[in-house]
Amino acid sequence: MRAILVGGARPNFMKIAPIWHEMGRYPQHFDPVLLHTGQHYDYEMSKVFFEDLGLPEPDIYLGVGSGTHAQQTARVMATIEKVLSETQPDLVIVVGDVNSTLACTLVAAKIRYPGSAHLRRPSIAHIEAGLRSFDRRMPEEINRLVADTLSDYLFTTCEDADENLRHEGVPQGKIFFVGNVMVDALLNQKEKAKESKILQVLGLRADYALLTLHRPENVDDRGTMSRILDALAQVGEHIKIVFPIHPRTRKRLTEFGLLNGLSGYQPAAFRSPDQGLLLIDPVGYTDFLRLMEEARLVLTDSGGVQEETTFLGIPCLTLRRNTERPITITQGTNVLVGTDPERIVNESLKILRGEGKTGSVPRLWDGKAARRIINVLLEVL
Ligand code: UD1
Ligand code: UDP
């Protein structure tokens, strides 16, 4: 069967890689086509992941680029409609919750192949279905709701996602609890990450914290961004904070005139090795994995990083008011701290004193999720 795997933004590539590799084991059943929408396009937001994760060049590149939500979504929709009409896949696999996920699902659900019998359309599989923050102010929540409503096969990472879907009326027969493909990717790259030279390159000799920030509600608002930076300055008096900076965040910090006040892009060697903020460009997957594994503490507003730190057992503070991944809190090492500076500082210091939360690895986060997905697809299609 012809299966199009859709990736568009950074957090998609580590989710499609294990599925792509697993499909490759069944050439008699699958004719996989790798499609990149081009939502993310900088080398360090896109191509580096193909290299790190052993993915080939995409078969199809839509090149949609950045824009408002409507512009970006519309560009993906218009271009993928043409691709689907021409290639007539049997299956479209979408992952996660970005605009590319929404756009491809919407088109795949409504298309009818020209000239086909019974007005055929592709089946749609959504990987990482059922996650809910219950906060529709987040664009990703809208994307998740639409993708899940329209997909035929919903693959979930945890049982509370199954519960969310059932609660929304999704029939049990469409829901498959398979575990977490991000953990598959992590385990596949763990050995390679040991060879990463990123710690030496950055001159990290002592303990450090790792930071990522890119949520619009944090970085698009000057007041919130300033409050977070205040907190980071205080935490930075106790530990070096490595900050691979997302392009959205770099752009906003520049617009707000806040970037120069930070450490800038000076070579690491010129700074104190154990204090302050170390700004770097976003790093590839294996380097980031190495940075996470060795960190004393991770501060983030990322979705995927909450899960990866739970899997690795690294204390994580999430700078958001809610999470669509509550299992990382109930079972894992994650603590939701919001953006109140006092809370961020207190919780960070608690971890540095060795009083951080410990956790356990959620069920089926075992490196075999892609195998389970392919087994289900072989059975149902
Ligand atoms: C997107 C996803 C978000 C995900 C994040 C992962 C949506 C609605 N948002 O957010 O869910 O958590 O990716 O990183 O789909 N830019 C560049 N180079 C790039 C890509 C982006 O400079 O390669 C800049 C552009 O100025 C762009 C901005 O970043 O306008 C935002 O990019 P966009 O893809 O719209 O959203 P993200 O914030 O990256
Ligand atoms: N990541 C990376 N390099 C970085 C920052 C993050 O490889 O500099 C990886 C991280 O390990 C995780 C994914 O990117 O696998 C998360 O993506 P992101 O935070 O951009 O998106 P989200 O998960 O919030 O949608």
> What is the number of E strands?
13
Shape: globular
Roughly what percent helix? Answer: 40-55%
Radius of gyration equals: 21 Å
- CATH architecture classification of the largest domain: 3-Layer(aba) Sandwich
The tally of domains stands at 2
N- to C-terminal distance: 9 Å
Overall residue-averaged pLDDT value: 95
Report on the biggest sheet.
7 strands, parallel
* CATH topology (fold) name of the largest domain: Rossmann fold
Q: Supply the CATH superfamily name of the largest domain.
A: Glycogen Phosphorylase B
CATH class designation of the largest domain: Alpha Beta
- What percent strand? 5-15%
Please state how the strands of the largest beta sheet are arranged side by side.
Answer: 3-2-1-4-5-6-7
DSSP summary: helix tally: 16
What are the bound molecules? Answer: uridine-diphosphate-N-acetylglucosamine, uridine-5'-diphosphate
Low-confidence stretches: 264-270
Structural class: alpha/beta
Compressed to H and E, one letter per element, the order equals EHEHEHEHEHEHEHHEHHEHEHEHEHEHH
